[in-house]
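Backbone-to-sequence.
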């Protein structure tokens, strides 16, 4: 068996009895059930959202980055604390194999949790609210699994540079999660404010262009929104961290993800989104490489 696959297999066996992973899956079950029950019982609330797919996307963006990091942020440091890594290192396993194997196993665990959550959401929505398009559900599931793997990589990097018995891993996960999900759109606005000046009454509008636009696009959730918009057939109009207004090549439909649409350009929109995806993966990649560098220099 290849070293990376061996690490993955051994870690998956450990995760089977891991209480924190079971807690993550249980929380996704509960959270997947509640929104559609509420929407189904209160038509006034439900009528504000055009489709239950919108609810599903909001829940995915709020939950998965945090839960993926929580599922992996002690994957290596926890092994070091329990001295389990010494047994692994008696085999011809490099530290790179260890990092990649942990990332794959935690991504698989997160993928299982995502599938369970989405399945519960679909069933509950059909019973209490209204049905979802299966094609949309499948596409969102695939894209959310990829999103989870990105944040699992960040979590594994955190586990490479911290100790399992300290509060630092929890702080780092929170420091990553809060800006990415809730506050990232403020960063370009603040940047414009600092550059352009002016008082509180002269705050710049969030019409992202140039460097502000590049800052906005460093958020991995931007790529998630972009990719979801390519494959979702339902008409949805929700506010999630994206400035996209992408045309549907099949039906000419517009999916609006924000009040700040992508401005017309001579560059094809899908070429722009290729740049978006590359940019948004840059920070997680650099964080992971930094974690690997620290792991290489860490005494095990």
């Amino acid at each position: 068996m290849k070293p990376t696959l061996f690490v993955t297999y051994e870690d998956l066996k450990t995760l089977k009895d891991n209480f924190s992973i079971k807690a993550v899956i249980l929380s996704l079950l509960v959270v997947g059930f509640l929104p559609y029950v509420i929407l189904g019982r209160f038509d006034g609330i439900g009528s504000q959202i055009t489709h239950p797919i919108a609810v599903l996307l909001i829940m995915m963006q709020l939950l998965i980055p945090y839960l993926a990091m929580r599922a992996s942020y002690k994957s290596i440091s926890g092994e070091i604390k329990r001295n389990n890594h010494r047994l692994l290192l008696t085999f011809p396993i490099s530290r790179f194999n260890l990092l990649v194997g942990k990332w794959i196993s935690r991504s698989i665990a997160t993928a299982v949790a995502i599938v369970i959550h989405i399945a519960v959401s679909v069933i509950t929505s059909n019973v209490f609210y209204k049905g979802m398009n299966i094609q949309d559900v499948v596409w969102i599931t695939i894209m959310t699994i990829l999103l989870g793997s990105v944040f699992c990589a960040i979590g594994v990097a955190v586990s490479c540079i911290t100790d399992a018995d300290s509060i630092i891993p929890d702080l780092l996960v929170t420091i990553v999660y809060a800006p990415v999900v809730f506050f990232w759109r403020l960063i370009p606005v603040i940047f414009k404010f600092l550059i352009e000046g002016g008082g509180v009454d002269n705050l710049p509008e969030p019409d992202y262009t140039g460097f502000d636009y590049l800052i906005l696009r460093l958020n991995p959730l931007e790529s998630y929104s972009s990719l979801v918009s390519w494959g979702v057939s339902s008409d949805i109009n929700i506010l999630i961290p994206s400035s996209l207004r992408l045309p549907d090549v099949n039906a000419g439909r517009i999916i609006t993800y924000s009040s700040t649409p992508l401005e017309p350009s001579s560059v094809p929109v899908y070429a722009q989104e290729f740049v978006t995806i590359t940019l948004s993966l840059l920070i997680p990649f650099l964080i992971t490489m930094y974690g690997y560098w620290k792991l290489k220099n860490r005494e095990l």
